[in-house]
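Treating backbone geometry as a discrete language has practical consequences that deserve illustration. In the encoding step, the backbone of a single protein was reduced to a row of integers, each denoting a local shape. The amino acid sequence and the backbone structure tokens for this protein are reproduced below.
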Amino acid sequence: MGTNWLVIIMLFFFGFAPLCSAALSWQESASLIGKSLYSNLDVNSQKVMQMAGLAIDQHNNRVNGNLRLVQVLSCKDVFHTRTLGSSVFDLVMLVKDKPNKTNKYLVRVYQKRSRDKQLIHQTVVKFELIERF
């Protein structure tokens, strides 16, 4: 019985999956798995403000920095899976550093939530300077 399952899995990965990926772009194939990509979120919502604050705190702890949030300019839900409860968000934020200079950053955040929508884990995947003012 185990060999039959192995053959079925191999047929899927080497036969069916390449056909699907060739026929669909990565955005279309990803949207089949979860929520459609790049939906904008309200930058003034409590969820977005909490996410931005946690992202800055994580970055400051990681690099021993002293960044402070000024404003969230945009927040996009890049990818969201309902079944796994995980999401990836891109935030564009204005942030002040130590000498009170404001810079624009792109921050990519990965979140894992429980079935009842409680935040379990948040990780900053990317914290990239976009523009200096």
